[in-house]
Amino acid sequence: MNERTLIIVGAINMFIAVCCGAFGAHGLKKILSDEMLVIWHTAVTYQVMHALGMIAIALLMPKFGGAMMSWAGNLMLAGIVIFSGSLYLLALTGTRVLGAITPIGGVAFLAAWLLVGWSAYKGMR
């Protein structure tokens, strides 16, 4: 993804995360168990962090540029979809098997942050 696309996708994800956070706090509070609300909150938290991460990557791309930063943005988006998405579905449906794919999203987040750090390191040489 290029800088503009990362900012747009990051902003859309922030919008979705704020909506999900409000929905969880107000709409789901009386429907879901405390355990499922915690899972919902975790999904929102990670979506917010990584949507902001995508925007940060876009802002860093002119300085460090390159394919690695683009890959980092793509991995953050994949992480949001897989990690937060699976947790949202788990909280709403109670289908525990969805928890088995959540770590794949976590690995995508980890790889994205490593690429950001590596890009900065390579850019400082």
UniProtKB/TrEMBL annotation:
Recorded hits in PANTHER family, A to Z, give: TRANSMEMBRANE PROTEIN 256
Compartments it resides in: Membrane
Keyword Lipid metabolism assigned to the entry: answer is no
Kindly list the residue ranges recorded as spanning the membrane.
Answer: 7-26, 38-60, 72-91, 97-121
**Protein topology in the membrane:** Multi-pass membrane protein
Q: Kindly indicate whether the keyword Acyltransferase belongs to this entry.
A: no
Q: Which UniProt keywords apply?
A: Membrane, Transmembrane, Transmembrane helix
Q: Which InterPro entries match?
A: DUF423
Chief location? membrane
Family the UniProt entry places it in: Belongs to the UPF0382 family.
Query: Species name for this entry?
Result: Herbaspirillum chlorophenolicum
Q: Please spell out the taxonomic lineage of the organism that makes this protein.
A: Bacteria, Pseudomonadati, Pseudomonadota, Betaproteobacteria, Burkholderiales
Specify the protein name: DUF423 domain-containing protein
